[in-house]
Specification:
Layout lengths: L7 H24 L11 E6 L2 E4 H17 L4 E4 H6 L13 E8 L1 H6 L5 E8 L2 E9 L4 E6 L3 E4 L2 E2 L11 E5 L7 H7 L7 E5 L3 H10 L4 E4 L4 H13 L3 E4 L15 E4 L2 H11 L4
Parallel strand pairs: 3-4, 10-11, 10-12
Antiparallel strand pairs: 1-2, 4-5, 5-6, 6-7, 7-8, 8-9, 12-14, 13-14
């Protein structure tokens, strides 16, 4: 547990491994046993047929909420499923207490289908700054971590995104058409231009990991939910990348961003994507 007057950096120096263990245990106990074994009564719709929730989401979030709050007394947990039940709880991201931002199963639709493209996302933030993140892909047991100022790692190996290869089309993962309004679709159409190869995204967390690894060049997303973005944005930053909104400012997890926004392998790529989204290129 965090001690009196201990800073978040000091807490992370002592307890990062404990958070990692909690993330992996949540997946092992509540998510993996239900993967490809979901019964019909374990899957529900929230806002519609493309917005699914399962018993794995709910139970993994409950597990993480209990363990993370105990590890860091005085902190609060903002989880996707808890916010669905009580939207006002999202405001804790803008509060004074350290906040754990949790997406228990990012890529629920893929999880329900029995596919491998899902992950568990946890980030620790304070006053709008993300200090640490954990991205765990249970299907192939990959764990990506980042601590602000200390780098990004995948299974212990340092991540470096690096710039895209000159002359090659930019590979950009965009908001999936199933989750976008007509106006957002029109915004994203700007990426259908020579030199750019856009495609619909899968799990946001895994798309950010692909950028941090240099396997993808950028994202272009049109929604703000912090549980989808907080962990991945820090991962990309610590791998040498950057993120920008359409006004050229960094994305804020506290909201009020000009959308769509991008996270990219390097600053030049981020500026190019933002210019296209803003109709300036």
């Amino acid at each position: 547990m965090i001690e009196n007057n201990e800073t978040i950096d000091e807490f992370l120096a002592r307890y990062t491994d404990d958070v990692e263990e909690a993330v992996c245990k949540a997946a092992a106990q509540e998510i993996v046993p239900r993967w490809r074994r979901l019964a019909a009564h374990e899957v529900d719709q929230k806002a519609g047929p493309h917005d699914l929730v399962t018993d794995a989401d709910r139970k993994a979030e409950l597990y993480l909420t209990e363990v993370l709050a105990r590890l860091l007394p005085g902190s609060v947990v903002v989880g996707e499923e808890a916010v669905h039940a009580n939207p006002a709880s999202y405001g804790a991201i803008r509060g004074e207490a350290p906040v754990w931002i949790v997406d228990p199963v990012d890529g629920t639709r893929q999880f329900v289908r029995g596919e491998e493209g899902f992950c568990t996302l946890v980030a620790l933030a304070h006053h709008g700054v993300v200090h640490a993140s954990w991205t765990y892909a249970p299907a192939d047991d990959r764990l990506a971590t980042a601590v602000r100022g200390r780098g990004a790692f995948l299974d212990g190996e340092r991540l470096y995104a690096g710039p895209p290869e000159p002359g090659r089309e930019l590979r950009v993962a965009t908001s999936h058409p199933d989750y976008t309004t007509d106006e957002q679709k029109r915004d994203l159409l700007a990426l259908r231009t020579p030199g750019v190869a856009p495609r619909p995204c899968g799990s946001a967390g895994l798309e950010y990991l692909a950028v941090a690894r240099g396997e993808s060049d950028a994202t272009a997303f049109s929604w703000e939910a912090a549980w989808d973005h907080a962990a991945g944005l820090l991962l990309v930053e610590e791998a040498g990348g950057t993120h920008l909104t359409r006004t050229g400012e960094p994305f804020r997890i506290t909201g009020g961003n000009e959308l769509p926004f991008t996270a990219a392998r390097d600053a030049a790529t981020a500026r190019r994507v933002v210019a296209l989204l803003a109709g300036e290129a």
